[in-house]
């Protein structure tokens, strides 16, 4: 049996910062071509989950299977090379480089069976970036920098991307552009796992949601299933 190239399966994931046990037996999956939201309040463990998947948390146990292969013991660069893209919550663009140059930094060879992204397609996906190709990263707004970070990650032709709070701090008009871009990424066959604090953005794009609180998964299901349980929503999410 061949597994879909973009699937991610997490089981028994535990993570620690020093003596603090942050993630407890986190388990969930992202199917091929799905947009899945990891929802939870500030401090719930969303970023730690994404970092643990990428091998960026020093002390961690559990299993992470990506595209049918166990990547739990691999270092972060090897995980990225397999086509797992990661956009951390602090936007790490090169402020001295232009938009075009930032994109070139992310360029990787085409990957069989996965959409290949070129700057022109990324400018279509994020029209703001297309209008400022020669601008230095440091002279862009926070929302534009957020888009550039995602676009640069797509230059690596990932089959699945982890987006840590892509809507955080964006103006309402930019939030809609971000949602449209994520839906367009899915149309190109990408799978997306994004973290998010509230339901509004997830409603625009997600097929399924997982809710994390105090490092444990408290709910997994479709958005419709979550909407039918307002007590769950009120207990674990910011309103
Ligand atoms: P979220 O992304 O959901 O806001 P985080 O994964 O960043 O949550 O944090 C989960 C918990 O881990 C919080 O209690 C936070 O204070 C703690 N934490 C996060 N990063 C570190 C770190 N580098 N060292 C120690 N504790 C941390
Ligand atoms: Mg976070």
TrEMBL record:
The keyword Transferase does not apply. One of its GO terms (molecular function) is ATP binding. It comes from the Bacteria. Residues 8-239 form the ABC transporter domain. Transmembrane segments: none annotated. SUPFAM superfamilies: P-loop containing nucleoside triphosphate hydrolases (SSF52540). The keyword Transport applies. PROSITE patterns: ABC_TRANSPORTER_1 (PS00211), ABC_TRANSPORTER_2 (PS50893). Keywords: Amino-acid transport, ATP-binding, Nucleotide-binding, Transport. InterPro entries: AAA+_ATPase, ABC_transporter-like_ATP-bd, ABC_transporter-like_CS, BCAA_Transport_ATP-bd_LivF, P-loop_NTPase. Belongs to the ABC transporter superfamily. This is Branched-chain amino acid transport system ATP-binding protein.
């Amino acid at each position: 049996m061949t597994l879909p190239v973009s699937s991610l399966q997490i089981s028994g994931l535990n993570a620690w910062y020093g003596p603090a046990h942050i993630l407890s037996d986190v388990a969930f999956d992202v199917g091929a071509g799905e947009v899945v939201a990891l929802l939870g309040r500030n401090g719930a463990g969303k970023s730690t989950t994404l970092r643990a998947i990428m091998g960026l948390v020093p002390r961690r146990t559990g299993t992470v299977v990506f595209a049918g292969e166990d990547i739990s013991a691999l270092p972060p660069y090897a995980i990225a090379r397999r086509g797992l893209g990661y956009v951390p919550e602090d936007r790490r663009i090169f402020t001295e480089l232009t938009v075009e140059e930032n994109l070139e930094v992310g360029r990787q060879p085409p990957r069989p069976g996965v959409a290949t992204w070129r700057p022109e397609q990324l400018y279509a996906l994020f029209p703001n970036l297309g209008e400022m190709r020669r601008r230095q990263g440091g002279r862009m707004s926070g929302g534009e920098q957020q888009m550039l970070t995602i676009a640069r990650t797509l230059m690596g032709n990932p089959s699945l991307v982890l987006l840590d709070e892509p809507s955080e701090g964006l103006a309402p008009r930019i939030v809609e552009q971000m949602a449209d871009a994520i839906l367009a990424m899915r149309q190109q066959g990408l799978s997306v796992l994004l973290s998010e604090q509230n339901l509004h953005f997830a409603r625009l794009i997600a097929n399924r949601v997982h809710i994390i609180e105090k490092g444990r998964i408290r709910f997994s299901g479709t958005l419709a299933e979550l909407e039918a349980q307002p007590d769950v929503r009120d207990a674990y999410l910011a309103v």
